[in-house]
Specification:
mainly alpha, about 0% strand
Length: about 50
């Protein structure tokens, strides 16, 4: 295998994994942040409201 390809593949796998883990953690923190609880509860009840 070409050394340049191998180096780029290892770089992409390592940093790509770290990027997606960081993104996942940011989404989890956003979703479970206490200040956003009311906003998510309102959004959950939205389909049940009558206009």
């Amino acid at each position: 295998m070409d050394p340049t390809y191998r180096m780029l593949a290892e770089f992409a796998q390592t940093w790509g994994l770290l990027y997606f883990v960081g993104l996942f953690l940011a989404v989890v923190v956003y979703a479970f942040w206490p200040a956003r609880k009311q906003r998510f509860e309102d959004a959950a009840r939205m389909p049940l409201r009558e206009d």
